[in-house]
Amino acid sequence: MDIYSQAIQLLLDHPQTQRWPQLQETCTRALGHKPIAWDFPLRACRALGGTQAAIAPAIAALTCAHMSLILVDDLLDEDPRGAYHQLGVGQAANLAQALFGLALDVLETAGSPSGVLAAAAIGRLQLHTAYGQDLDAQNLRSEEAYWQVARAKSSPYFATGLYLGALFAGAEAGLAKQLHDFGALFGEMLQIHDDLNDCLAVPANVDWLQGRAPLPILYAELAPHAQQARFMELRGEVSDPAALQEAQSILVSSGAISYCVSELVRRHSQAGEQLAGIPLRDSRPLEELLDQMIAPVRHLFERVAS
Prior knowledge:
Strand content: under 5%
Distance between the termini: 44 Å
Oligomer: single chain
């Protein structure tokens, strides 16, 4: 059984899960749909030379947190694919609350001296992300607001994943905090990367259709450039492939794509400096994360150039 399966088994063996069919079904479904960054605790453990078997509770708790946040995020976004359509709004909200509690209980019963710190980290993750989700739902239109949302909604999940892995690998709190901060910066990078892909997707991504403001679109709306007025006209017409193509071309010509790439590269450099200052036994598991962020940038340039 691999480490992720071991983590999910911890959730399935929990007494509350066994007497609650809906919770059991949700945890079982996670076996076939690994959440993004499920392996962050494992990466931290490997970087620190910890024992892999000890990381299962951290992965289980992070998976619970992810499922809980997705349930709530779908409610706030009124996502047509959201589970609340099958469960009902009330049951979906209740299930999200249960998953949060399950994450805390798994950490508490793990028998690790780091369990209390880990449980507090999951609580902070939920608190900061809920704030970020609230800001995001307001669809605020400023670059300051964009970064505020990214740091509250995107960064805590990745930061907590590395932090939990460090704690369960036996790291002291200061060292775990260093990995946490590296993960937070990675979260900002991933948000920019996702925004770039979403804005250049064909057909139009939901961010276009719902009038949202990912970073490239926000730049094209707010930064002065010759095609700004035309871009604003096209915003509501992107269901038409020709209008979408023109709007995406303006993202390139206005400097929006270049700006986002520069922000991504700047954070990549900062993260590399952070990583170099962390006393790790093997930095490669975390270096791989940075490599994964830069490789798509090369692909993006190739895509835009074509």
